[in-house]
Design goal:
Chain lengths: 222, 304
């Protein structure tokens, strides 16, 4: 049954994931100076990968937008279509239903940034790909951002799930998640406390999951 | 015979408004229970509380002997819930909806599903988004997997007369076998009259009636009192549901009209007392409408 749930979630997210994947391919190809005929970013040929004004950061912009959209899609869509009542009446603990949703959503929105970054890093690590030095330690900031990306997703999921007004506190959880993400990233960038940043991000994510499961148990799906 | 549904003092507020007010009700196994009420009377909220979709503010309830707050998945699998509008995933085909639903049930009644789909001539390849309201209702019923308890929230809402009747008859034929219980809400009196053994009427969140359908119809009377001159107000008395002034007459809606009511009417100076039997629809309207102010006398104006 978890497989049925996961398949349903993936099928519903497919258009969003496909669109994000296409944009990511274009960004990565542009960063690698591969001409696809479409250019979303301009990268100077003498730029060092993962350093300075590298256009690859736009992968995270797209990833963040996708993570937010996935979180809202998985919650608001069910509300707008009144399908919560069908879904929640399936004979499965509510924690498992929401757990499946969260697992698929978090994995999808993380993979959409991890795969392009890995692709770009492997290209950068290939001898002769560009005329500049490359060390894997230069990619730490990118991996850290990948690891923190689920916070955006969880913030959006909670924003869509909890009862709130659009012109009120609807997006408060998303705003708080973005703030937490930047603080964690700041820890890493300013003080090089990479592990501390990861742990802090994990604690915030665990807190979000706990709140999401609490809201799922207690809110009215009317 | 056991209790399929037991509700004790269930209450729900939305803001300051009490939408379900201290409702207590017991529905025995094998009963077809029709829940009547006007829009906003609290029927859907009560059903959603039973299904765990809405959290009650007070009171408790049990389904098939299990508290609704601790309903195990195994018990939920024995209960089917068709919510208002029959929401299903519109991107799925009927076959995909079956494939999605099937893994959740340890016991899956494939013959039940096939017989309903064949009966309603619904193709497995049909896209749910392209089905009519009635067909979606039929697919929802097919996905119910032969439940012990079937709860339907206004299942015939938006269906045309033919589809509605067909749906209800199939519902009874297919589900009401060997002690299965049905609870359904409706505001269509004919549906309830055709199907229900017992009915409940909710008015402003309060369960005002819980009795066999025949008893409800038989006990309610419209009493028309004729007066000469000023029309007095009928005093509050047991069984008086409502009163309204119509021209020189006072119309009362009374449960179990008896000697006490007759004596009161005569003491007010009524010149004529007429007692009118009511069909279920009239009884329901009378019961749920409440007191209405008299109509203003219409004066025709000449438009220049």
């Amino acid at each position: 049954m978890m497989r049925a749930l996961a398949r349903k979630e993936l099928r519903e997210l497919l258009p969003l994931l496909a669109l994000a994947a296409i944009v990511q391919v274009i960004i990565v190809c542009s960063s690698m100076h591969v001409n696809l005929g479409i250019r979303l970013v301009t990268q100077s040929a003498d730029l060092i990968p993962f350093v300075g004004q590298d256009a690859i950061w736009q992968v995270f912009l797209v990833g963040g937008l996708l993570a937010g959209s996935v979180g809202l899609r998985q919650t608001m869509w069910e509300s707008n279509r009144h399908t919560w009542q069908f879904l929640l009446h399936r004979p499965l603990p509510r924690e498992a239903l929401f757990g499946a949703k969260l697992a698929v959503g978090a994995a999808a929105s993380t993979l959409v940034v991890v795969v392009p970054i890995l692709w770009y890093a492997l290209w950068a690590a290939s001898p002769g790909a560009h005329a500049s030095p490359f060390f894997w330690s230069m990619t730490i900031w990118a991996w850290l951002l990948c690891a923190l990306m689920p916070l955006v997703y969880l913030g959006a999921f909670l924003s869509g799930l909890r009862s709130a007004r659009w012109y009120g506190s609807r997006f408060l959880p998303l705003a708080a998640a973005l703030l937490a993400m930047f603080l964690c990233y700041g820890l890493s960038a300013a003080l090089s406390w990479h592990v501390a940043a990861l742990v802090a991000g994990g604690v915030v994510a665990a807190g979000y999951v706990a709140v999401i499961l609490f809201v799922a148990r207690t809110r009215d799906f009317s | 015979m056991g209790e399929a549904i037991k509700i004790e003092r269930l209450t729900k507020h939305y803001g300051p408004r009490r939408v379900v007010d201290n409702v207590s009700l017991t529905i025995p196994s094998g009963c077809v229970y029709g829940f009547l009420g006007r829009n906003g009377a609290g029927k859907s909220t009560l059903i959603k509380m039973l299904m765990g979709m809405v959290q009650p503010d007070a009171g408790r309830a049990s389904l098939l002997g299990e508290d609704i707050c601790e309903l195990r998945p195994a018990t939920r699998a024995r209960i089917a819930y068709l919510s208002e509008g029959h929401p299903l995933y519109r991107w799925m085909t009927v076959a995909e909806a079956v494939r999605f639903t099937r893994p959740f049930y340890a016991v899956w009644h494939a013959r039940f599903l096939v017989s309903i789909l064949e009966h309603f001539r619904i193709a497995p390849k049909a896209k749910i988004g392209r089905l009519s309201n009635g067909q979606r209702a039929q697919v929802s019923l097919a996905l119910a997997s032969d439940p012990e308890l079937l709860v339907l929230d206004d299942p015939t809402l938006g269906l045309d007369t033919v589809v509605r009747r067909d749906f209800l008859e199939s519902l009874i034929q297919l589900i009401q076998r060997s002690g299965r219980t049905i609870l359904f809400s409706s505001h269509i009196l004919g549906d309830v009259e055709r199907v229900a053994d017992r009915l409940g009427v909710m008015v402003d969140g309060v369960l005002r009636v819980d009795c066999p359908a025949d008893r409800f119809r038989d006990s309610l009377r419209r009493v028309v009192l004729e007066f000469v001159g000023a029309i007095p107000r009928f005093p509050d008395s047991p069984g008086l549901v409502g009163q309204r002034q119509v021209g020189s007459r006072l119309e009362l809606i009374v449960v179990d009209f008896g000697d006490q009511h007759r004596e009161l009417a005569e003491s007010l100076g009524a010149t004529h007392i007429e007692i009118v039997e009511m069909n279920l629809e009239d009884a329901f309207i009378a019961y749920t409408r409440g007191e209405t102010p008299p109509l203003p006398s219409l004066e025709w104006e000449t438009i220049a």
